[in-house]
Amino acid sequence: MRIVLALALLVSFAACQPWDAPYEKSSRTIEGCDDAVSHLRSCCPRYDSYLSCSYLTNSTVAPDLTKSQSHCLVAKSCADLERAVKSNDRICGFLPATTSCR
Fold first, then answer.
1. Structural domain of 76
2. Taking the CB of residue 68, how many other CB atoms lie within 10 A of it?
3. In a domain, 18, yes or no
4. Is residue 101 part of a domain?
5. What sign for the dihedral angle of Cα 74, 80, 82, 85?
6. How many other CB atoms are found less than 10 A from the CB of residue 86?
7. Are 73 and 91 in contact (CB under 8 A)?
8. pLDDT per residue over 8-50, tens digit each?
């Protein structure tokens, strides 16, 4: 009886998978991205496109901004950002989806 109980506990423990399962969604945040999005939105208050600063580590989808793009955007002046957004140009390798700032 003890062997059956021990086996049942072992099977139920293994079924719960207390370790990271491959299907779990683990995400990472891009360094500097929150600051870049805040700067972009403060310079272009009507910027209405969604930018995600996190991504799933086991996904094939790339994040909206890279670390270097984020740091580059923060360093740009509001005039540079507004000009790029209005003319639908790339800035720091990033193509804004919105063409309206103010």
1. 26-96
2. 13
3. no
4. no
5. negative
6. 15
7. yes
8. 555 555 555 555 555 566 888 999 999 999 999 999 999 888 8
In a domain, 41, yes or no: yes
What is each CA distance from 90 to 9, 29, 50, 62, 83, in whole angstroms? 58, 23, 17, 17, 10
Q: Do 78 and 43 touch, CB atoms closer than 8 A?
A: yes
Q: Is 16 contained in some domain?
A: no
pLDDT tens per residue, range 39-71? 999 999 998 888 889 888 877 777 889 999 999
Strand partners, 29: 54
